[in-house]
Amino acid sequence: MQITTTLTSSPTDDARLAEILENPGFGTHFTDHMFTVEWTPTDGWHDARITPYGPLTLDPAAAVLHYAQEIFEGMKAYRHDDGSVWMFRPEANAERMVRSCDRLALPELPADDFVQAVAALVEVDQRFVPSNSGAGEKSLYLRPFMFASEKFLGVRPAEHVTFMVIASPAGAYFKGGAKPVSLWLTEEYTRAGRGGMGAAKTGGNYASSLVAQREAYAHGCDQVVFLDGQEGKYVEELGGMNMYFVFDDGSIVTPETGTILEGITRSSIIELAGKMGHHVTERKFAIDEWRDGVASGRITEVFACGTAAVVTPVGALRTKDGDVPAPASTDLTMRIREALVDVQFGRADDTFGWMKRVV
């Protein structure tokens, strides 16, 4: 793509930026610029530009507001100790967005253009990438997204589409850091079904999870667990993360995809755990197997993973039929977490070829 760049006339001053980077939170502060490119059937992708961050102007009839034709990605950029800035597996995010485009009847953005767009914004706003010392885990969270911006009312794929990238300095996703999170099992609501949109990263999937997430909060839990929509007995995913179960023989099971989102962190852990000598199986995993496995001691650890939270131990599971206590250990969970984070922040050799240098 040919990208034009218009820099802001009022950049965040150094003192304010230092405050933000000291305690960025998650998803509350944004960088000075944003990337935009548009698509129509006649012109294809065109007018790629980086401009000052600011509000959008949308017609009230914009298709996304009525038919929810939109998708997004989540990824991060990391500053290494030498000051360089790197992205983690951007090609994997680009490929997943192509799959989401196909499911939501949106035009495909070529993977190379996706990576170029994200890298261009990171380069322009590189001062917003936090530095880290010791075991610090601050990063720049990147949010590429695509939506139907055509002005019309009617149920058909839009013929004007906008792709954008925004960025936000990020600290820990959970306020307590990498501590065990408590989960609520919802048996009333499901997240996805066969032939649905569960494997696409689209806002509708997250919207459908919110009522169950509210239910989890009401029961004093951090996150919600969804079961499959067909039989209501197989664990699928959390509100925003994939799951792993560690057994006493060192083997690991993660629920199979198809109706759920295939996470980039999830696939990375499959490779990483395999290299560490652990056999990882992707298969259906029943809620009763979770209950019985913890009770018998066969399941020694449970953890969740995602771009935002990275790897997080799972504590107790609360259900309407009683609680499943936290497994006995978090040892392997934390070793996997450390190994992954060390690659991302340049503290360990990237033997997988996952990191892409931007600056």
Compile the SSE list and pairings.
Layout: E1 4-5, H1 14-22, E2 33-40, E3 44-52, H2 63-67, E4 70-72, E5 75-79, E6 85-88, H3 90-103, H4 111-124, E7 139-148, E8 161-170, E9 181-185, H5 203-218, E10 223-227, E11 235-238, E12 242-247, E13 252-255, H6 264-275, E14 280-283, H7 287-296, E15 299-306, E16 310-319, E17 322-324, H8 331-344, E18 355-357
Parallel strand pairs: 1-3, 9-10, 9-16, 13-14
Antiparallel strand pairs: 2-3, 2-8, 4-7, 5-6, 5-7, 6-18, 7-8, 10-11, 12-13, 12-15, 15-16, 16-17
Helix pairs in contact: 3-4
Characterise this structure.
- With 359 residues, the chain is of the alpha+beta class.
- It is built from eight helices and 18 strands.
- It has two domains: 4-171, Aminotransferase class 4, branched-chain amino acid transferase, N-terminal domain (D-amino Acid Aminotransferase, Chain A, domain 1), CATH 3.30.470.10; 181-344, D-amino Acid Aminotransferase, Chain A, domain 2, CATH 3.20.10.
- 26% of the residues lie in helices and 29% in strands.
- Strands 1, 2, 3, 4, 5, 6, 7, 8 and 18 form a nine-stranded mixed beta sheet that branches. Strands 9, 10, 11, 12, 13, 14, 15, 16 and 17 form a nine-stranded mixed beta sheet that branches.
- A hairpin with a 7-residue loop joins strand 10 and strand 11.
- The mean pLDDT is 95.
